[in-house]
Amino acid sequence: MAVLAGVFLDREAACGLPALAGDANRGPKSFSAQNPFRSRAPVSATLDVLTIGNAIVDVIARADEAFLAAQGMPKGSMTLIDEAKAEAIYAAMGAGTEISGGSAANTAVGAATLGARTAFIGKVREDKLGQSFAHDIRAAKVAYATPLASDGPTTARCLILVTPDGERTMNTYLGAAQNLTTADLDAELVKGAAITYLEGYLWDPPPAKEAFLAAAGIAHGAGREVALTLSDSFCVDRYRAEFLELMRKNVVDLVFCNEAELKSLYETADVDSALIQLRRDVASAVVTRSERGALFVAKDAVVTAPAYPVDRVVDTTGAGDLFAAGFLAGRTRGLDPATSLRLGALSASEVISHVGARPERNLLDLARETGLLA
Amino acid sequence: MAVLAGVFLDREAACGLPALAGDANRGPKSFSAQNPFRSRAPVSATLDVLTIGNAIVDVIARADEAFLAAQGMPKGSMTLIDEAKAEAIYAAMGAGTEISGGSAANTAVGAATLGARTAFIGKVREDKLGQSFAHDIRAAKVAYATPLASDGPTTARCLILVTPDGERTMNTYLGAAQNLTTADLDAELVKGAAITYLEGYLWDPPPAKEAFLAAAGIAHGAGREVALTLSDSFCVDRYRAEFLELMRKNVVDLVFCNEAELKSLYETADVDSALIQLRRDVASAVVTRSERGALFVAKDAVVTAPAYPVDRVVDTTGAGDLFAAGFLAGRTRGLDPATSLRLGALSASEVISHVGARPERNLLDLARETGLLA
């Protein structure tokens, strides 16, 4: 498949959003020129992408719509649950496949398999699931050195019900993940990372919120970029005002969201008006639109890219995480936004073709096969 | 897809093995008429299939041929390892997907999803993996009541390396599974099961061998059938004489094997001569031949069935287990051997299309979609 090199102006661009075609393929150096933290030249990054998030093991089972209804689970959502509720759902649900997960951790793994130098910070306990989590992320060549907790809550798990249409409904017991604190931040790691990527879900456990803000401060102090994924429309609903403040105060430079999250952020059903507000509020953003592709927006640019076709959507878990992985890997390689979007779309297409939120194929090989990377 | 209703005489049949076309579709009642334990009419079965085997959780990771070579693993084999070796391999291997497994347990799950009334007997410890195993098999509607061990070795695990061609190479730490004893046998369960299915792997842990023989005795005492899978060519190599004795002394009535196991059993590269010996040694057998289909042989019959086409072989783990599941489910439904073989082939085709040895789809729905079952 040929590299999608051009700039595509779509209906968003046509409705009042000026797109500077000459600028869209400039590559990362100038792409966030509006960002005050980009004003001095940073020392060379020792890491491409550092992600920080809730460290979670997924337990994935198939379920039908009736099961979701009987359990009162809003389809497609992520619901926070306590350990007792986790036990009750587990007892009721079908046979589970256990695969390491966690949104930002999935993104780190995806970026690593695309050749990016990556690290992850997140908390597990030193129990069976925690050991699996640590093994798996390290096996994917992601640097992971957050100390495992020797006591306290057990390792976080996410009970994921996948309906026949491939859609996932998640129930998360945060457990040990909620004890991530500023003390777990490795400042040198943050300073050395070209992009520090934070998940909106970190807003759920209060101490993690502080770690999030501290990491953003350290990254900006070192002249690096800070990215945020809005994670989930329900998450946006919980923290709308805070997320908007992070954007408006330039605590984050690059936002990842899907259309549902975007609509939730601006409490509107109108994507066009939400996009106009998004471009005012943040230096740059990637908006994913499932099978309709994705777009990158900055103050002066709108770039779109189509989705990759998928034979059968098996499980959408991790689609957004892997899209971000592809985009970030492309961006830190110095690729233009259009190609980075395509790399995101390709990565997402791989992960929705099988069960689990971590890629089964080497994404670098896949990108080379499709001609996206040389 | 149409039901394969006819009898196909293949080259085995043509080379000295008489096939009685009129007999091949007789259904189970007369199919093991040669077996002395079928001489009196059994009381109605309360269970279709009881399987007994090593209760194992699989940890599945992708690996390349170079990894197998570096680790000294014979590709396609199952090697028994101790816990220290399991830790060493785990540390070296890639990120793992954990899914309940165990050969006979997979067969029970497969038969259950085809609508058979099934139960499983096998030993785990009451640890995280053991609890997952118990949850998963019960979630698949397989009756499972073997007491979980409260101490002793940890739950068995099988480290499975899947190469790009989909072939699996297994390393099994038997742990708690090796403590299955005659005391764990529920005699009423065995008496009530139309077919008791035992895995050759049970010959590895010595106490389980006794439980195996006790179960066969109870089953035959109640006028039931006893089936054995030869499990693995290396397993056959370890226990050739004993397996042959089980067959020749009518301790087992129905043998499942693939061509590699068959050749190993008779220490020959010539499948035809091995088949002649197989028909002399056991009342009936199912021989699977990967993409070349499978055949059912009895003293007076040879029936063949083609394989189901598969778009992409992702992971062959469980192919034999699920073939057996389909055949047993068909047989206990009273279907003829040809249709039972087809049900086996269909079940195997589903399980090799994804990672893991348990079906992801409802096999009954699948069999109905293909027209194999009404």
TrEMBL record, chains A, B:
<keyword id="KW-0418">Kinase</keyword>
<dbReference type="InterPro" id="IPR002173">
    <property type="entry name" value="Carboh/pur_kinase_PfkB_CS"/>
</dbReference>
<dbReference type="InterPro" id="IPR011611">
    <property type="entry name" value="PfkB_dom"/>
</dbReference>
<feature type="domain" description="Carbohydrate kinase PfkB">
    <location>
        <begin position="95"/>
        <end position="358"/>
    </location>
</feature>
<dbReference type="Pfam" id="PF00294">
    <property type="entry name" value="PfkB"/>
</dbReference>
<dbReference type="InterPro" id="IPR029056">
    <property type="entry name" value="Ribokinase-like"/>
</dbReference>
<protein>
    <submittedName>
        <fullName>Adenosine kinase</fullName>
    </submittedName>
</protein>
<dbReference type="GO" id="GO:0016301">
    <property type="term" value="F:kinase activity"/>
</dbReference>
<keyword id="KW-0808">Transferase</keyword>
<dbReference type="InterPro" id="IPR052700">
    <property type="entry name" value="Carb_kinase_PfkB-like"/>
</dbReference>
<comment type="similarity">
    <text>Belongs to the carbohydrate kinase PfkB family.</text>
</comment>
